[in-house]
Amino acid sequence: MVFGFLALEYDCAMTTNAHPHDDHDHSACVADALARAEASCGERGARLTPLRRRVLEGLADSHVPLGAYDLVERLGASGEKPPPMSVYRALDFLVSEGLAHRIESRNAYIACGRDHGTDDVIVFLICEACGLTSEVASHAIGRDLAWATRAAGFTPRTPVIEIAGTCARCRAAAEAAPAIEGAGSPR
């Protein structure tokens, strides 16, 4: 069966965990991620080891996807530098427990900012200018993609969509830049 495009309707229930750049309190993100991790691991009987906790803290403290070696350096700056393989194992655990996501296009990871099911479609909005990555949820997108994949006889392995573009803050800065550059020139 062939179809030309998938029309996605506007979903008033669409939510995002985006934030402004400058006045955002990362400590709240870290505290929320750790609380969700402790509750989730407690329910499942999984262990949130000290290294897994530190890796999750490092991810939650940044809304820019981080690679394993970025995390090694970050964690080393605030304490003992962990071996890269240990960080990779911690990342694998966090992803398998739904506490972090792998951003395939960046070969990097980001803390999960939402409570969602394992079958939910996850949409990441990735700013190409600053790297800010927001996790977005929409039941309409999930429903429409489920219909499209069934119609195609396709079974998705990871229902994740990555959309690269420019965030509102960077777009506003880019639009203001020409006005600032031309402000001092004679007319």
UniProtKB/TrEMBL annotation:
GO terms for biological process: negative regulation of DNA-templated transcription; regulation of secondary metabolite biosynthetic process. Its cofactor is Mn(2+); Fe(2+); Zn(2+). Keywords: DNA-binding, Iron, Metal-binding, Repressor, Transcription, Transcription regulation, Zinc. Binds 1 Mn(2+) or Fe(2+) ion per subunit. Pfam families: FUR. Zn(2+) binds at residues 127, 130, 167, 170. It comes from the Bacteria. GO terms for molecular function: DNA-binding transcription factor activity; transcription cis-regulatory region binding; zinc ion binding. GO terms for cellular component: cytosol. InterPro entries: FUR, Fur_C, WH-like_DNA-bd_sf, WH_DNA-bd_sf. Fe cation binds at residue 119. The keyword Zinc applies. Belongs to the Fur family. This is Uncharacterized protein. It comes from Starkeya nomas.
